[in-house]
Amino acid sequence: MTPHLLALIWLSVTPIAPASGPALAVEDTMRTELPLVLVSAPRVTLDEILERISRGERHRDSLITDESFVATFRVVRRNDRSGQAEVLSETVAQVYKKRPDKVRSFVMRRHEASSRDKDKSVEIHFRPDMSEQVVNFAFRPEARRQFKYRILGRDLIGDHLIYRIGFEPKSHLDPSLPLGTVWVDTRDYVIVRQEITYSRSPAPILIKGMDRMVIERERVGEHWVLRRVLIRARTTVPLPHLGREFDVSLQCDQYRVNQGIDDGLFRTAAAR
């Protein structure tokens, strides 16, 4: 037996002193491989997805006979230098809507940061219908000729699929048309979130840019309803009390859907 072989045997049986510090255990890892499966079912086309969204939005609208909610409208100024936010005004209103064309809102609370604005009247106006065009404007059938669409991704959440679909104007001649992304819940084919921006300012004389617009819905019982709208804008010149950067937000909560609102509530409003 050679010295080299003896040295090798001695190294293999001699315990090695553990190094100082924490030790990591080496564990066997189970590995599995699944065979590839050829799927022959056709994938849903983009046109079919857009048609399903159109039907899903109409169905969502048709399920709501009446609704009431509390709407909070807030204007926030952002300091140009520090970036700190200051609430300039906040208006809280109770809103009632009933199919086909009844709507009423009244202010419950109002806050103005400046004493000069305390006597100014602030009103929040809502459409009487339930369609929420602020959410689905780019996916209504009549808008298909103005926008082009593409699938950005598919996300599996729980037991259902969420589509992310991007949209942008077919023509860039009209700066009032935005581009953005929507998140579509395929259980109901309803838009649950939307992010919007503009490639150019829709009002360049006053608005330098609209950095972001976010719209979100939430599920109340079996119904999808508007939850939040946030707009962040920059102006070309400082505006009185607003400065150059400000946020406008609308938050809706305390929903009650299909509770049977009495028509007398709206007649009283009309009489006033």
| CATH class bucket | Mainly Beta
Distance between the ends: 112 Å
Largest sheet: 10 strands, antiparallel
What kind of assembly state do the chains in view correspond to? single chain
Query: What strand line-up does the widest sheet have?
Result: 3-2-1-10-9-8-7-6-5-4
Provide the low-confidence segments as ranges.
Answer: 1-17
Number of helices: 4
- What overall geometry do the principal axes of the alpha carbons give? globular
Classify the secondary structure makeup into a structural class.
Answer: mainly beta
Give the averaged pLDDT, no decimals.
81
Number of domains: 1
What is the gist of this entry?
With 272 residues, this protein is mainly beta. It has 4 helices and 10 strands.
Structural write-up:
With 272 residues, the protein is mainly beta. The chain has one domain (46-271): outer membrane lipoprotein receptor (LolB), chain A (Clam). The chain has 4 helices and 10 strands, in the order ααβββαβββββββα. β8 (207-220) and β9 (223-239) form a beta hairpin. It is globular and about 70 Å long. The N and C termini lie far apart (112 Å). Residues 1-17 have low confidence and may be disordered.
